[in-house]
C-alpha cells in the first residue's frame, strides 16, 4: 500500500482528491494542511477516524514540521495542493500568496529533496513530487488559440505570478537536483466542496437566496471549466504513469463566458427551486466594476495528457454544472457552516 503525502487536502481540490483516493483504496493518505480560511475539516468528515487517513495541521513552509511528517510517515509521493488560491484576495494582499505559494513551495521542495536523497535506491526511483498548478500562469488569450505546455509564462495577477514562480522552482529542482517532479496546469475547477467565494458556488448561494448576482465587467471573460472529479482523475493518472520532469495541461474543452455560467445556474435553480415571487433569476444579474487586470480568456489544449496518458474528462459542462447545483442544494449544511464561520471552530482528531 502506497503512502501519499497530500498538502492542502482540506481545501477544495485536495479534499476531493483525498476522498476519491480513500474511496478507491490501495493507499494511505497523510494530509498536511495549515487550515487557513480555505481549509475545511467538514469536507473530510466521512473519512475522519479511518486508519488510512492521518490529518496533520501544519504549514508547508514549516521545514521542521514537514521533516517530522516525512520521517514519521515515509511517503512514496508528495502531491502539493497547498496554496493561497483566490485571485481577488491576491489583489488585496499579495504577500500571503508569495509566502505560501513561493516560499512555502520552496521549503517543501527542499524537505522533499533531502528526504528523497536518503531513500533506498528502489524507493528513490519510484518517488514522485507532483505539483498542482493552474493555467493562469500562461496569462490571457485573445479570441483564438489555446495554451499548450510550450506556451510562454505571462502571469497577470499576484496569484498567477506566485503560482508561476512555484512552477519554475519545481522545474528547477528536477533539472538541477534530479528530484522526480511532475507538474499539472489545470483550468478552472468547479464541483462539490468549493469555498463559496469562487464564482460558481457564490452564484449558487446568492441565486438561491434571491440576492443580486454580481458579474464582473461585461461578463464576457472566458474560462475553460473542468469538473473537479475529472481533475482528480487526471492527477491520479499523472501520478501513476506520468513521465518524470514533464508538465501536463488539464482542461475540460468547456469554454464558457462568465455570464453563460451564471445564466446556466439561474436556469437550473429556477427549475429546481423557483423563487416564491415568481421572478426569473436572470433578472438578478447585475454588472459590477471589473476586477483589475482581469484576464479575458483562458483555454487549455489538453491533447498531451489525453494522448500520452489516456485521460479524458467524463463530465460535459452541462452535466457537471447540474451535478454541482444539486450537490449544493443537498449540502446546505456544509455551506451554512462556512458562511456562519462554525466550520473553523472544530478540529478533527488525528
Ligand atoms: P483551496 O484554496 O480551496 O485550498 C487550499 C488548501 O491549502 C486549504 O485547505 C488551505 O488550508 C491549505 N493551505 C493554504 N496555505 C497552506 C500552507 N502554507 N500550508 C499548508 N496548507 C495550506 O484551493 P483549491 O481550489 O483546492 O486549489 C488547490 C490547488 O490547485 C492550488 O495549488 C491551486 O493553485 C490549484 N488549482 C486550482 C484551480 C481551481 O480552479 N480551484 C485550478 C487549477 C489549479
UniProtKB/TrEMBL annotation:
One Pfam assignment: GDP_Man_Dehyd
Top-level taxon of the source organism: Bacteria
Cofactor needs: NAD(+)
EC number annotated for this UniProt entry: 4.2.1.46
Domain NAD(P)-binding: 5-323
Catalyzed reaction equations: dTDP-alpha-D-glucose = dTDP-4-dehydro-6-deoxy-alpha-D-glucose + H2O
Matches recorded under Gene3D superfamilies: NAD(P)-binding Rossmann-like Domain, UDP-galactose 4-epimerase, domain 1
Keyword terms: Lyase, NAD
Key word Lyase present: yes
NCBIfam families tied to this protein: dTDP_gluc_dehyt
PANTHER family, A to Z: DTDP-D-GLUCOSE 4,6-DEHYDRATASE-RELATED
Protein family (similarity comment): Belongs to the NAD(P)-dependent epimerase/dehydratase family. dTDP-glucose dehydratase subfamily.
Protein name: dTDP-glucose 4,6-dehydratase
Organism per entry: Dokdonella soli
Organism taxonomic ancestry: Bacteria, Pseudomonadati, Pseudomonadota, Gammaproteobacteria, Lysobacterales
Gene: rfbB
Amino acid at each position: 500500500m502506497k503512502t501519499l503525502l497530500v498538502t492542502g487536502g482540506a481545501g477544495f481540490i485536495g479534499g476531493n482528491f483525498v476522498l476519491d483516493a480513500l474511496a478507491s483504496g490501495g493507499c494511505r493518505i497523510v494530509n498536511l494542511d495549515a487550515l487557513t480560511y480555505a481549509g475545511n475539516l467538514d469536507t473530510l468528515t466521512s473519512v475522519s477516524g479511518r486508519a488510512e487517513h492521518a490529518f496533520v495541521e501544519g504549514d508547508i513552509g514549516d521545514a521542521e514540521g514537514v521533516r517530522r511528517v516525512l520521517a514519521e510517515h515515509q511517503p512514496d509521493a508528495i502531491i502539493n495542493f497547498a496554496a493561497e488560491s483566490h485571485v481577488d484576495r491576491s489583489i488585496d494582499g499579495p504577500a500571503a500568496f508569495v509566502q505560501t505559494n513561493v516560499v512555502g513551495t520552496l521549503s517543501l521542495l527542499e524537505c522533499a529533496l533531502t528526504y528523497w536523497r536518503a531513500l533506498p535506491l528502489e524507493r528513490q526511483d519510484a518517488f514522485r513530487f507532483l505539483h498542482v498548478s493552474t493555467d493562469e500562469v500562461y496569462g490571457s488569450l485573445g479570441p483564438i488559440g489555446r495554451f499548450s505546455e510550450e506556451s510562454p509564462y505571462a502571469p497577470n495577477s499576484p496569484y498567477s505570478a506566485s503560482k508561476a514562480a512555484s512552477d519554475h522552482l519545481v522545474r528547477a529542482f528536477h533539472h538541477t537536483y534530479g528530484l522526480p517532479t511532475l507538474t499539472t496546469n489545470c483550468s478552472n475547477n468547479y464541483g462539490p466542496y468549493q469555498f463559496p467565494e469562487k464564482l460558481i458556488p457564490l452564484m449558487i448561494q446568492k441565486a438561491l437566496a434571491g440576492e443580486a448576482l454580481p458579474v464582473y465587467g461585461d461578463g464576457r471573460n472566458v474560462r475553460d471549466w473542468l469538473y473537479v472529479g475529472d481533475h482528480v482523475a487526471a492527477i491520479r493518472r499523472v501520478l501513476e504513469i506520468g513521465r518524470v520532469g514533464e508538465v501536463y495541461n488539464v482542461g475540460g474543452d468547456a469554454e464558457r463566458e462568465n455570464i453563460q455560467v451564471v445564466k446556466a445556474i439561474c436556469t437550473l435553480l429556477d427549475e429546481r427551486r423557483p423563487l416564491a415571487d415568481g421572478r426569473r433569476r436572470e433578472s438578478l444579474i447585475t454588472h459590477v466594476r471589473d476586477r483589475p487586470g482581469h484576464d479575458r480568456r483562458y483555454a487549455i489544449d489538453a491533447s498531451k495528457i489525453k494522448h500520452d496518458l489516456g485521460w479524458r474528462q467524463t463530465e460535459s459542462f452541462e452535466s457537471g454544472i447540474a451535478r454541482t447545483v444539486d450537490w449544493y442544494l443537498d449540502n446546505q449544511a456544509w455551506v451554512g457552516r462556512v458562511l456562519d464561520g462554525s466550520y473553523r471552530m472544530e478540529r478533527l482528531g488525528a
